[in-house]
Amino acid sequence: MSDTVIDVRTIPPRERHPLIFRELDGLTPGTSLRLLNDHDPRPLRYQLEAERPDHFRWEYVEEGPEQWAVDITSRAHVIDARPILAAGDEPFQAIMEAASRVGQDEILVVWAPFEPVPLEGVLAEQGFRFVADEVAPGDWRVCFLRS
Fold it and tell me: Is the peptide bond before 65 cis (omega within 30 degrees of 0)?
């Protein structure tokens, strides 16, 4: 069962995706949002996969023809190191604490202003594999998965 339910049929179309993304970004790993719609929300899934790859598990509960219901479950522990570093602080401890909580079928996502090569090495030694992407100049997203 989902922790939150959003029935987007009652929400103006232009407000739907921003609302859904806000709700999804507020989920902790293992918690879910149930989305109700009058059509297959496949475009939302494509947008999620493009903007937050691997962050969520998508499971159809009901597939039309009158109603679609999808459970979207968070699987990401997210640490944004950019504001921590900008404040002159060190994010290493927060990242390591988050890494210690990553379970099977979960990921750790670290946002940084540079590729955190030393962190990649430390977490690789702890059994993580990673994918690092520079999504914009000076904006790195590194996804760590347990091997």
Answer: yes
Q: Which tens digit of pLDDT belongs to each residue from 91-119?
A: 999 999 999 999 988 999 999 999 999 99
Residue 49 near residue 76 (C-beta atoms within 8 A)? no
Q: How far apart are CA 12 and CA 15, in angstroms?
A: 6
Helix 13-25 with 42-51: angle, nearest 10 deg: 50
Find how far residue 147's CA is from the centre of its chain: 19
**First and final C-alpha spacing in the chain:** 29
30-60 pLDDT, tens digit per residue, is 999 999 999 999 999 999 999 898 899 999 9
What tokens were used for 140?
């790195």
Structure-token pair, residue 59: 């499971």
Decide: pTM greater than 0.90.
no
The DSSP secondary structure of 45-74, one letter per residue, reads: HHHHHHHSTTSEEEEEEEE-SS-EEEEEEE
Q: Return all residues near 58 (Cβ < 8 A) that are at least 6 apart.
A: 45, 48, 70, 71, 72
DSSP 8-state class, residue 88: T
